[in-house]
Amino acid sequence: MKEAKRHGFITFWLWLCAIANGIMSIFYLWHLFSSKGLWSGTPEPTWLRLSWLFSSLINLLGFVLLLEWRKAGFYVILGVQLIGLAIALFASVFANVVNTVPSIFSTIAGIAILYGILHLRHEGLTYWDAMDKVIHVDYRE
Fold this sequence. Notes:
The chain contains five helices and four strands; from the N terminus they run βααααββαβ. By secondary structure, the chain is mainly alpha-helical.
């Protein structure tokens, strides 16, 4: 196996996304079981709040896989985002939740940004090309 270094910006971005998804998982778990969660008249149904919790947990797994230089992490995140988009469309039709249009744009933009960041070049090699083929080393100057 060849040793490769990950650029600091990519490491920063992946950690930022992993931390954000971890915080959102805690928030959704708290929201689900708080006094305003399961037992309240909030506009979102319980199944939708559960889907938010599970999607943030699975996204966290995807970012951890990306931090471990695994392409499967990108595909996990892509799958969760597409399933989340389908859930948002379903919720807008059957549960009267009105966040569908922003969900479409944020899903497309988020995946495009992540894909673009994974294709940044460092020492002539993109992070995408190096995944699953190298010993991982974070960038240090």
